[in-house]
Amino acid sequence: MILKNLSLQNFRSYKKDSFNFSKDTTLIIGPNTAGKSNLIEAIFFLAAGCSFRIDKDDQLVRFGKDLARIKGKINEKDLEVIIAREGVSGKNRPFKKYLVNGVSKRKADFVGNFFAVLFAPSDLEIITEGPSKRRNFINNILVQTDREYRLATGFYEKGLRIRNALLHKVRETGIRSDKEFLYWDNLLIIQGQKITRKREEFVEYLENSKKEIFDFKIFYDKSTISEERLAQYKDVEVGAGVTLVGPHRDDFIVNLDEHDLKYFGSRGQQRLAILQLKILELIYIEKIARDKPALLLDDIFSELDEEHIKLILSMIGGQQTIMTTTHEEFIPKKLLSKTSVIELKK
Question: Does 1-115+291-346 carry CATH code 3.40.50.300?
């Protein structure tokens, strides 16, 4: 599965640009603020249907414009995403439109046509930051590889927004209609339990896989959603104005010698754990998709030490690789001789 070409229109810093990629390795060179990470973000969007950097889609649209477009040629398929700001076409919030070969698709049917694994220095936050970073790590993998998971998360996120709005209304008015909550409670329970089951299976894969670079234990700290738990938190939720149980509250703990690596691991151990997770991600996606995902390496050379860079470069082989750097001299000469180069100006 090869990304041949990428066209951007009013996406982030790009007004209108097009890029061609090698089926092997492509190096994107440019100074800071040249748009290297924006380019990687656009490629990843074609795989996951969302950004790995921000939650608000209208931030992806170039300043002063209403619409952004990302279009990629994947083998013989044309994948396109149109991102619109709030207010465009009468929408009261930003929206996205997904197309495959010019035909509009649901996100659940758009994702799965292209696969990518991203490695960036910010991935260290999977270990060091809050639960949302760890949920996003697993979501980005399962959304790409499991249509049932894509559908479940879509239904769950919509139901969660509406239920939270109902809770906020109850907090403001003091009036609650249990009948009004019944449908959305049931939806969250059904879809939330599907999400939990899929995450449990993936964490079990991580736990049981051979870890040649760095061995660790991973624990799924799940927030079970059920009729009983929603009833248990009923009054507290009104005070908070949000739903307090369910997979949107999940966490995943990486342990070394029974200690949480977030608090007790060195920076080097944390980086090795992330590298091991990314290798397992590559293996998992290839196994499920029966095809090698594109490997996206975003500015790893300026942030990581030589030892860790060598380990990451050892991941290159057999799959399409697209990487960014500020300086060409960071790249080993042996690798550079086999690499296509795209140079971005500031």
Answer: yes
